[in-house]
Amino acid sequence: MKKLYEILIAQDKEVKEYLVRGRQIAQQHVDLFSEMLISEDLPAPMSWDSAVSDSTTPVFSDKLMMFNVSSMVAAGIGNYGMAIAASPRRDIALKYATLLPEIALYAEAGAKIMIKHGWMEEPPQADDRNEIIQG
Fold it and tell me: How many domains does the chain have?
């Protein structure tokens, strides 16, 4: 049986690894919140895995997949922020807050991949004040 990494349609190895990592992070988050719901006798959401195609023919470019994943990650970070602000339960807000650093690092890794391939321009950086003083 082939591993998910081997059958993922992305062409670039680094993009494949990034997408697999994202899937693992998402699954961990789903599991965490599903456990919380189940422990409160509430229904947990179903997985959408059944809608995944078994095609091995690339339908979308790596550039488009990275753009879409980056957009969804940015939206997810915003959703977690809104959830923190709107949740009356501190324990749930704390869960969101502890998950944000992992997502932020994932978003940064995606941006670096896109910059490396020329799919995104590097954002302007602040001047290095120490270098200016030395120089």
Answer: 1
Q: What one-character DSSP code corresponds to residue 41?
A: T
* pLDDT at residue number 52: 65
CB count in 10 Å sphere of residue 33? 16
Query: Residue 132 is inside which H or E element, if any?
Result: helix 129-134
**Residue 128 tokens, joined:** 């290095």
For residue 89, tell me if it sits in a domain.
Answer: yes
- 10-residue mean pLDDT series, the chain (135 residues): 60 93 93 93 80 75 95 96 93 94 97 95 84 82
For residues 110 and 65, is the Cβ–Cβ distance under 8 A?
A: no
Q: Measure the N-to-C terminal CA separation of the chain; round to a whole number of Å.
A: 58
Q: Classify residue 114: in a domain, yes or no.
A: yes
User: Is 64 part of any domain?
Assistant: yes
Cα–Cα distance between 65 and 69 in angstroms, integer? 6
User: What residue numbers bound the domain in which 28 lies?
Assistant: 12-45+60-122
Give Cα 107 to chain centroid, integer Å. Answer: 6
pTM above 0.85, yes or no: no
**55 domain-assigned:** no
